Amino acid sequence: MKKTLLSSLVAFGLTVLPLAAQAGTVTVKGSDTMVILAQRWAEAFMKKNPSMKIQVTGGGSGTGLAALQNGTTDIAMSSREMKPAEEEKLRTQYKAPPTQLSVAKDGVTFYVHESNKLDALTVEQLRDIYLGDTTSWKDVGGAEAPIVLYSRENSSGTYVFVKDVVLGGDDFASAAQTLPGTAAVVNAVAKEKNGIGYGGAAFAKGIKELKVKKGNEAFAASAQNVKSGKYPLSRDLFFYLRNKPAGDVKAFIDFALSAEGQAIVTQVGYFPVK
After folding, report:
1. What rounded mean pLDDT belongs to the chain?
2. How far is CA 97 from CA 100, 226, 242, 243, in A?
3. Which of 187, 171, 190, 165 is nearest to 106 (CA)?
4. How do strand 211-214 and strand 208-209 relate by DSSP bridges?
5. What is the per-residue pLDDT across 130-188, written as a single tens digit (0 to 9) for each?
6. Residue 207 falls within a domain, yes or no?
7. How far apart, in whole angstroms, are the C-alpha atoms of residue 27 and residue 225?
8. Which residues constitute the domain of residue 196?
């Protein structure tokens, strides 16, 4: 009933204040790419602050941003930038612009089976593969075998990033199998010798990461290449708030951006912003 009531109030243009959280509790929701990182931050933060509780859940960037608007999370995790329409809804509803904070960096990585002899593809080749224009590995220098496509659900920030940056806004091929998280994509590619999938750099275990060709060079999603911007699919990972951080929320964010918090970013497999 609570969700229905909130939805109805928003539909009629009424201002809805965030639902009150328990004292000493901060809720963090959204990007599946960021869940492991946020959980590690939460664990380390709660060790230092035993009276605090940080609740972290995934569901995708779009889900987190929707929860931020309806007042059911304090922090939305997003692996993409907020869309203008999403920003305007928050601004209208809460009478203030939302706050965007870059908390880590990532390189969106395309994964193939360990036995795949290819080491690198261009963005254009990746685009043709995911649009369904290229359907055999032989067409991009690989074995004579069909390409098996794995993708993410459309609530995923990584899905949106790949669609916008790699596919130029076009739709994924209908043959692409939609999976509910990056871990599921990695698991599928690890089992399918002709598979290809994508996700955050931190998840690339048990499969081969393709480098991305740019001109005469091929770039891996390394810390140096992501930081310099040489890796063509570099991106920021964000926290979004309804307004400026304060109180317990600010304390948690300050920890995430501290030297200790950014060291955790590296340990998890992403890249620090500082």
Report:
1. 91
2. 9, 29, 7, 6
3. 165
4. unpaired
5. 999 999 999 999 999 999 999 999 999 999 999 999 999 999 999 999 999 899 999 99
6. yes
7. 33
8. 106-234
pLDDT of residue 23: 60
Asked whether 107 and 204 are in contact (CB, 8 A), the reply is no
Query: For residue 239, what are the CA distances in angstroms to 113, 128, 141, 177, 242?
Result: 32, 32, 40, 29, 10
- Say if residue 63 is in the same domain as residue 151: no
Packing angle between helix 259-268 and helix 247-256, nearest 10 degrees? 60
Q: If 0-12 CB within 10 Å is exposed, 13-18 middle and 19+ buried, where does residue 8 land?
A: exposed
Overall number of domains in the chain: 2
Q: State residue 75 phi and psi, 5-degree precision.
A: -130, 130
Q: What is the pLDDT of residue 201?
A: 85
Pull the structure tokens for residue 53.
């509780």
pLDDT confidence tier of residue 22, bands split at 50, 70 and 90: low
Q: Answer yes or no: do 205 and 229 share one domain.
A: yes
Helix or strand run (H / E) with residue 5: helix 2-11
Closest to 40 (Cα-Cα) out of 199, 215, 206, 267: 267
Question: Hey, CA dihedral for 235, 78, 108, 226, is it positive or negative?
Answer: positive
Residue 9 falls inside a structural domain: no
Tell me the CATH number at 57. Answer: 3.40.190.10
For the stretch 129-142, what's the b/e string if a residue is b when 16 or more beta carbons lie within 10 angstroms of its beta carbon? bbbeebeebeebeb
